[in-house]
């Protein structure tokens, strides 16, 4: 993908959002978008002189929308709007989230539906490209009327006020950072403050980042499941294509195909294929049903991606300048569609982690591990093996179950009951980020435990895919007396997060879904 993303030629994609937010790609405005922005701004300029009040142009906001604002106070109106709404509290939001939020606001502004001036939009783009990241606080958005407080902190920086992080991550005043980048703070005019803060950009940005992470982690989940099936002497017969076709769920079929590839040519599997020598009729659900669970997760991620795609094509503001020149109030800033799928994905993360933890626990229980030592310990009793690694998993899974409780069913009225139903989509997005991190850690511990279980099956050799993953897994070492386990877990988390785990498997299997 190019290091520069052009905005205004069509909807952004999830990958483009991630490229700018996480990997530092820059943004360019298309000539067509600049022309359309100028055209809609001319409409707003005409309304500014109209004796009839127009919301956001010549009136107050929210419950104060009936207040007519005289011409000489309108610049102050926009400044006051941004300053008062930049009311966030709590710890700083991650840089990648703020960059995603900024990009998505730029994308809406570039549609020409908000009435902003071209020079204001171009300064916003310049701020993003210079690596200037406004300090945004975690609490402040109700996910309706847009992510008001987070977007206001960004608009405040555009005005040369408040705090930012520069490209090196140093905390400095917005005025100093803009000056160093050769940018002039914006003096907001009619409608511009509202246009800068009235969108679902924060929750949508976090949705895009979560989708990218979960698309990777669902493949990791297939990988760790395959290694657990192998290490626990499970069967791959249940993953046969014809059995999956009896229930034609797309995600399930893709996960089962991954499992077949990953378990191919395993000596460990072949060692118990003879039904006369193997007395187990069926594997436990956590092994046998792994493609059903991971497949359902895939389908849910696909649904969330379709919702994100529609939102990425949206122009969210209130009021909007329609293509035929009308300026109309609307409710498109309500975050419900995004909030619902953010909550849905938190359920997916919790359940993928839950089944992974159950597979890990089977490795550690001598009554269920089919011949492995208790807790995979070198000298059980003296050594505890991976006993407490499972505790860590269990603690994370318990937290993920709490995080799976939906935020979008809650609503607290605001703005003197004018805004009497809100989405809480920002809150849903914040907890989903914690869920994704937790899932990554649970899968890393399963990977580490399954690798040790497979090593203990020697002299039987694992399949080439598992062997490649174990060989690439840093700091695993050979089974032996207990050692400091936390660094090994963190190394495995990095191994999963970097994509190296899937890459090692794919070096043998070819592309995985």
UniProtKB/TrEMBL annotation:
<dbReference type="GO" id="GO:0005737">
    <property type="term" value="C:cytoplasm"/>
</dbReference>
<dbReference type="GO" id="GO:0004397">
    <property type="term" value="F:histidine ammonia-lyase activity"/>
</dbReference>
<dbReference type="GO" id="GO:0019557">
    <property type="term" value="P:L-histidine catabolic process to glutamate and formate"/>
</dbReference>
<dbReference type="InterPro" id="IPR001106">
    <property type="entry name" value="Aromatic_Lyase"/>
</dbReference>
<comment type="similarity">
    <text>Belongs to the PAL/histidase family.</text>
</comment>
<dbReference type="GO" id="GO:0019556">
    <property type="term" value="P:L-histidine catabolic process to glutamate and formamide"/>
</dbReference>
<dbReference type="InterPro" id="IPR024083">
    <property type="entry name" value="Fumarase/histidase_N"/>
</dbReference>
<comment type="pathway">
    <text>Amino-acid degradation; L-histidine degradation into L-glutamate; N-formimidoyl-L-glutamate from L-histidine: step 1/3.</text>
</comment>
<dbReference type="InterPro" id="IPR008948">
    <property type="entry name" value="L-Aspartase-like"/>
</dbReference>
<protein>
    <recommendedName>
        <fullName>Histidine ammonia-lyase</fullName>
        <ecNumber>4.3.1.3</ecNumber>
    </recommendedName>
</protein>
<dbReference type="InterPro" id="IPR005921">
    <property type="entry name" value="HutH"/>
</dbReference>
<keyword id="KW-0456">Lyase</keyword>
<keyword id="KW-0369">Histidine metabolism</keyword>
<dbReference type="Pfam" id="PF00221">
    <property type="entry name" value="Lyase_aromatic"/>
</dbReference>
<dbReference type="InterPro" id="IPR022313">
    <property type="entry name" value="Phe/His_NH3-lyase_AS"/>
</dbReference>
């Amino acid at each position: 993908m190019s290091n520069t993303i052009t905005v205004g030629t069509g909807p952004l994609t999830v990958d483009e959002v991630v490229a700018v937010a996480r990997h530092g790609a820059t943004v360019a405005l298309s000539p067509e978008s600049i022309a359309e922005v100028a055209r809609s701004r001319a409409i707003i300029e005409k309304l500014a002189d109209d004796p009839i009040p127009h919301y956001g142009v010549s009136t107050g906001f929210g419950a104060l929308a009936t207040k007519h604002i005289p011409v000489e106070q309108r610049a102050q109106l926009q400044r006051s709007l941004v300053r008062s709404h930049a009311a966030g509290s709590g710890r700083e939001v991650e840089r990648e989230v703020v960059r995603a939020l900024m990009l998505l606001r730029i994308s809406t502004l570039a549609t020409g539906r908000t009435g902003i001036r071209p020079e204001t939009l171009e300064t916003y783009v310049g701020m993003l490209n210079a690596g200037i990241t406004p300090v945004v606080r975690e609490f402040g958005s109700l996910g309706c009327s847009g992510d008001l407080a987070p977007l206001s902190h960004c608009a405040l920086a555009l005005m040369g006020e408040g705090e930012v992080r520069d490209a090196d991550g140093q905390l400095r005043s917005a005025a100093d950072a803009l000056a160093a980048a050769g940018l002039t703070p914006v003096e907001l005019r009619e409608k511009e403050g509202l246009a800068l803060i009235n969108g679902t950009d924060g929750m949508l940005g976090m949705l895009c980042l979560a989708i990218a992470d979960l698309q990777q982690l669902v493949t990791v989940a297939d990988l760790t499941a395959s290694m657990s099936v192998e290490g626990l002497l499970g069967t791959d017969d249940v993953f046969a294509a014809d059995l999956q076709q009896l229930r034609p769920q797309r995600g399930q079929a893709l996960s089962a195909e991954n499992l077949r590839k990953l378990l191919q040519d395993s000596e460990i599997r072949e060692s118990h294929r003879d039904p006369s020598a193997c007395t187990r009729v069926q594997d436990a659900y956590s092994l046998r049903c792994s493609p059903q669970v991971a497949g359902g997760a895939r389908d849910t991620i696909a649904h969330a991606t379709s919702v994100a795609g529609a939102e990425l094509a949206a122009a969210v503001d209130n009021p909007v300048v329609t293509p035929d020149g009308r300026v109309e109030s609307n409710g498109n800033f309500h975050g419900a569609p995004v909030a619902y799928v953010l909550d849905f994905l938190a359920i997916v993360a919790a359940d993928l982690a839950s089944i992974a933890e159950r597979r890990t626990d089977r490795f550690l229980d001598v009554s269920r591990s089919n011949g492995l030592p208790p807790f995979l310990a070198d000298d059980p009793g003296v050594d505890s093996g991976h006993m407490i690694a499972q505790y860590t998993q269990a603690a994370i899974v318990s937290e993920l179950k709490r995080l799976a409780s939906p935020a979008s069913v809650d609503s607290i009225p605001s703005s003197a009951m004018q805004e009497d139903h809100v989405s809480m989509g920002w809150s849903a997005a914040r907890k989903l980020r914690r869920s994704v991190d937790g899932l990554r850690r649970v899968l890393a511990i399963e990977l580490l435990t399954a690798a040790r279980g497979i090593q203990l099956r020697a002299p039987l050799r694992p399949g080439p895919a598992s062997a490649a993953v174990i060989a690439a897994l840093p700091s695993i070492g050979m089974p032996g007396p207990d050692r400091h386990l936390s660094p090994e877990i963190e190394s495995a988390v990095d191994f999963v997060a970097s994509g190296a785990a899937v890459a090692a498997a794919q070096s043998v299997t070819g592309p995985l879904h």
